Amino acid sequence: MESQHDEKKFQSAYEKAAENGIDPRCIPQKLTQDVPEGDLITYPNYSETEISIWMTLYIRQMELLKGRVCDEYLEGVKLMNFSSSQIPSLRELSNVLSSTSNWTVARVPGLIHEENFFSFLRRRVFPSTDYIREPHEIDYTPAPDLFHDIFGHMPLLTNSNFANFYQLFGEAALNAREEQHIFLEKLHWFTVEFGLIKKNNQNRIYGAGIISSKNEVEHSLSDKVEVIPFDIERIIHQEYEVWHLQPLLFVIESFEQLETSFKEWVSKENLI
Ligand SMILES: [Fe+2]
User: Fold this and answer.
1) Residue 127: partners with Cβ closer than 8 Å, 6 or more residues away
2) Which residues, including other chains, have CB under 8 Å from residue 112's CB and lie 6 or more apart?
3) 148 C-alpha vs ligand 1 centroid, how far in Å?
4) Is residue 219 annotated as part of the catalytic site, yes or no?
5) Which one of 114, 155, 230, 258 is most buried, counting C-beta atoms within 10 A?
6) How far apart are CA 226 and CA 249, in angstroms?
């Protein structure tokens, strides 16, 4: 009975969707053994096709992100030394993160169970896949792949405020009571995955779910989206759709604001 209760406690939106016959790659797996981290991660022997998928995605997204993505993300891209002709090495990215924001990288086999995921974050370790989507999935894949994990998530982890916020997120999620889990899931969605940030009175993108998606990049700053000032109390009660373009997004003023307001909220909610 107790373990069933725990299972439900960590059930994500994806898991709930999976119960209704969604792509099995979207069902989070529980890690049963240690996964390689940092210098222990070996570089896969990528095929020409896989390298060309990276190249296509990288060139297209970098072009689309011009003038749309936040400066902090672009600074991270520079530090990570991405190139269109080579799929980045998790081991090298781990070294970059280690010297900029004291994070490292672990290689995981796919979407992992939330409890595993948050345990990594709490230790300032980013769990990443190292396989790339299939050619027919260039425009959209429902499951995580290295383009989402590396290109979408990692650059911003070089920003110290964001890096601190994300570690605290992991800690808070592990301490959360059942009813607080949905709040954190929504917060993750509207910040880490689909967050916008204000720059000189214009909205810029910082969420990885937008950054790694052609359609979301084009859609997120269009007039089809309602943009609301960042407000945690509002976010935790906001519904969202996993499988459609986002109709509503929240904009932060700065990454300092994200870190500070989240710290205040977790302390008020007794999550740290
Ligand atoms: Fe993600």
Assistant:
1) 35, 105, 106, 107, 108, 112, 116, 117, 120
2) 28, 29, 30, 31, 127
3) 6
4) no
5) 155
6) 6
Catalytic residue selected from 12, 119, 212, 213 = 212
Q: What tokens were used for 59?
A: 């060139």
Residue 6: is its pLDDT beyond 80?
Answer: no
Domains by residue range for the chain, with CATH? 2-268 (1.10.800.10)
- Tell me the Ramachandran region of residue 56: left when phi exceeds 0, alpha when psi lies from -120 to 50, beta otherwise: alpha
Strand duo 125-128 + 196-199: pairing? unpaired
**81: left (phi > 0), else alpha (psi -120 to 50), else beta?**
left
pLDDT value at 48 more than 80 = yes
| Single-letter amino acid, residue 125 | V
This prediction's pTM: 0.91
Distance 1 CA to ligand 1 centre (A): 31
Ligand 1 mean position, distance from CA 140 (Å): 13
> Which backbone phi and psi does 123 adopt, to 5 degrees?
-90, 10
* Token representation of residue 20: 């209704």
What local confidence, expressed as pLDDT, does residue 27 receive? 82
Q: Which of 148, 185, 213, 216 is catalytic?
A: 148
